[in-house]
Design goal:
Length: about 240
C-alpha cells in the first residue's frame, strides 16, 4: 500500500469540500446507489431492521439513508460541513447515526457490523492500508463489504504518479491497480464473492468522444480507469 501523507490528505479534503460547495445538482442518485447495494448483496446478506451497517465516506447523506435498518452508522471527515447544509440534512434518515471521523480511526467496537459500504473512498484517504485494517476489525466474521473503486492499468497508474508530482488531481492522492487490492484482500482473508467491471475500453471510448477537455486528455494519454465493484466476505 502507498505511503501516508497528512498534508496531502488535507489538501484532498479541501478539494472535496470545494467540489460539494459548487455542486448544483440533487442527491437522488443515492437512491439508485442503495438499490445497487441491495441487489448486489442480496445473495450473501439479507438486510433487515437489525442489520448493523456502516458507510465510510458517506458524503452529505450516503446510500445508507435508503437502506431499511434501524442500526445504521455513517462516518465522514466533512460531517461538520454537510450537517449544516439544510438542503442535504433535511433529506437524511434520522435512523442513521452520522459522525465526523476517518476510516483510519473507526470509533466502533470489534466485529460489530454485518455490512460495510466503501464507494470510491479509498483513493481519497490518508492511509488506505489502515482503513482496510480498521474495516476488518469492526466487521463481523462472515460479514459483507460492498466495495467500489476506480482502478487503473499499469500505464494509467504510472501517468497518475507523474500527475501527482504536480498535484494535477488534488482530490485523489492514491491510485490502485486490481492486483494490489486483491493482494491486500487476501492478507485480510476477504473472499471475493462477486466482481464486476465496466472495462477500460468503454471508459477510454467514452472519454475519446467526450465534449470535455479533461475527458479527451485522459483518453489521449491513456489515463483510463476501470469502474469496478467487489462484494467481499470476511472469512475468519
Amino acid at each position: 500500500m502507498p505511503d501516508t501523507n497528512q498534508s496531502r490528505w488535507e489538501l484532498a479534503q479541501n478539494y472535496e469540500k470545494n467540489w460539494w460547495g459548487n455542486y448544483a445538482g440533487n442527491v437522488d442518485w443515492y437512491k439508485e446507489f442503495a438499490k445497487t447495494i441491495l441487489e448486489s448483496t442480496k445473495p450473501y446478506l439479507q438486510i433487515n431492521r437489525e442489520t448493523a451497517i456502516l458507510e465510510i465516506g458517506s458524503g452529505p447523506m450516503g446510500a445508507i439513508a435508503f437502506l431499511e435498518s434501524d442500526n445504521k452508522h455513517a462516518i465522514e471527515p466533512l460531517e461538520d460541513y454537510f450537517s449544516t447544509r439544510k438542503e442535504w440534512a433535511s433529506l437524511r434518515d434520522p435512523r442513521v447515526k452520522y459522525k465526523k471521523g476517518r476510516g483510519e480511526e473507526l470509533p466502533y467496537n470489534k466485529e460489530y457490523f454485518d455490512l460495510i459500504i466503501l464507494d470510491n473512498v479509498l483513493d481519497h484517504c490518508e492511509d488506505p492500508a489502515t482503513v482496510l485494517s480498521e474495516m476488518n476489525r469492526v466487521l463481523k466474521n462472515n460479514g459483507i463489504i460492498f466495495f467500489r473503486q476506480n482502478l487503473y492499468h499499469w500505464w494509467g497508474k504510472r501517468m497518475r504518479r507523474m500527475m501527482e508530482v504536480f498535484l494535477i488531481d488534488k482530490g485523489h492522492p492514491f491510485t490502485f491497480r486490481k492486483n494490489e487490492l486483491l493482494d491486500y484482500f487476501k492478507k485480510l482473508s476477504w473472499q471475493v464473492e462477486l466482481f464486476e467491471e465496466s472495462s477500460y475500453f468503454k471508459t477510454w471510448q467514452k472519454g475519446l468522444i467526450s465534449f470535455s477537455l479533461k475527458g479527451l486528455i485522459k483518453a489521449v494519454l491513456l489515463i483510463t480507469n476501470n469502474r469496478t465493484m467487489f462484494i467481499l466476505k470476511k472469512k475468519r
